[in-house]
Give the backbone structure.
Amino acid sequence: MKDSFFRSMTWLHTWVGLLVCWLLYLIFFAGTLSFFRDEITLWNQPAIHNVQAQTQRIEAQKQQIITGFDYLANHGANSSSWRITLPEPRIPYLIYGYAKPKEPGQRRSKFENTQLNPNTMQELEPFVDTKGGNFFYRLHYDLHYMDAITARWIVCFASFFMLIAIISGVVIHKRIFKDMFSFRRNKGSRTWLDTHNLSSVLALPFHLMITYTGMITLIFMLFPYPAKVTYDNGMRGFFNDVTPRNTMTDKAKGELPMVPIQRILDQVYTKWPHADITRVQVNQPNMAASTITVLVSAGKTLRDQAPRLIFSGATGQMVAKTDDELTSSKALYESLNSMHTGRLATWLLRWLYVLGGIAGCVMIGSGCIMWAKRIRERTKNNVKPSFGLKLVEGLNLATIMGLPLATCAFFIANRLLSPTTAERADKEILAFFLTWLAVALLALIKRDTLQWRVMAAINAVACLSVPVINALTTNGNIVSYLMHKQWALFTFDALFLLFSILFFIQTEKLRTAKSNSKTISPSQSNNLKRQKP
Amino acid sequence: MQAHPLNAQPTKLRVIELLSQFFKLSPIFSYRFSVFLRFLIAIVGGYSFTAASTALLSFLLPLTKSDAVLLCVSLSILIYALVFIYAFYIKSLKTVWISILLTTSAQICLLAVLKGWL
């Protein structure tokens, strides 16, 4: 029984893993980049490169909000909604925005935003149209060019298989450990096995946590049944119960001027003397039913929903708020969510998240390469490789080499596209997917060591070109970032240089790889044999 | 009149015989089919089991409504994963199918009785 349990788990691990590994690689890749979402957006937006971080950020917030209300009262008096987004440690600029009238066919009205330098209160240069880090953030769970809900179901399915692969992997690992000492395999796939084990075991708590909590972030789509059964009006009833909302003045009709914002801020600071306000939102300004929502940063607490106070704009009275103390269930749910998003992470923890994500990519990548290598080793030289093997090898090359190259293309497109290009943000994304498609097409033709080498070399050049093109097209470069202590931008460029070096090393490694390597297609290795004396 | 049951019996037997022969003749197909059935019960059965058990649990737990829901959804993936592993842990495919179908329908029935859906 025990033996068959191990065997069934080994089987499960292999096939469940193989089925979804390429999609998982994409999810891990985009998810890892999403931990640097704000930094990527910063890099993509040269207009904010020279905005210095404020020295007295929290102290300046009160005045910024008061100024914002004056600005919005002048510019967006007839708008349905106002939004003041304050600078955060990783987002250095200030936004005053008001909703434009909804155009027919739009689900939500678009915002007219004014971005300001918080130090000088001067308007920043016009922003270029780019999705920045949000592209990778959405790609992580919404994929692209498809319906978001369908994509989320697919992503959840893959994540669940990932969880199963992790659990079964833990079960079989003991045996693999024994196997490694009891008999020696051919070095080729053994090395990959070691890589796979190392990257899995080192970051195992991270892998388990990130996979489980990832599904929890979409849990009300996956399992709406508890809420549907418990509440009479289903999901709506549940969400109304857990989100603070205005039930006191929302039925009020007619216009009514708002109380001075000062009176509302006084209440906020009485409640939270050291409040780090992130956003102030006004719905239906100057109406009797108007609400002013003040959101503060959750800081380092394990809370994903930002603590907030909601006031009636007409009376200045507080009408709703988030719970000060969370019940155990809420704390469990909120902590699971906040562990996944890592919004609480400061620099050290953020880097640990990223390293965990990279370990995840290595784990998935080495797993799918190992499968192909093993089958290759078992296939005799005179036997034609099966369609399945060729497919796996092609997908391996297309995913592992294609994604970094596509990412480079995304950033290069960001710098090379003219700021006036129509639908510029979409074209950056198009560059990403076209590059990936090109790599996939090349992988269709050949998947041997030479092809991997060519891809590694192209990646090395592409990674190198990102900081170079940045230096040529913007005012800053990696040296000036270092001199002016612009750490986010410096790290961004430095990472690309680092990856460029790593890809060069890979190119060299693949050149010196043994010529009898099993990745060479049989026809080629036959040729090699014939050439040998 | 007498010929009817006699005729029916062999036809029935022959269908079973043919089916079993088909499976014996093509062990690959039979293996693939059993793998498919196992994945089917693990994915769909596991999902239904989790949906039923979390719904029932959130209804039964002596907590406030929102707490019960949040606790149950937080546990749901754990339950689903356990059922999934169970479906591959038990050797007999028949046992897996019967146990998951029975427990799921029992929970749905209990929930239906409690909610007064019947």
Residues 56-127+245-321 of chain A form one domain. The beta strands of chain A are 81-85, 94-99, 111-117, 122-123, 277-283, 291-296, 308-312, 318-321. The two ends of chain A are 53 Å apart (CA to CA).
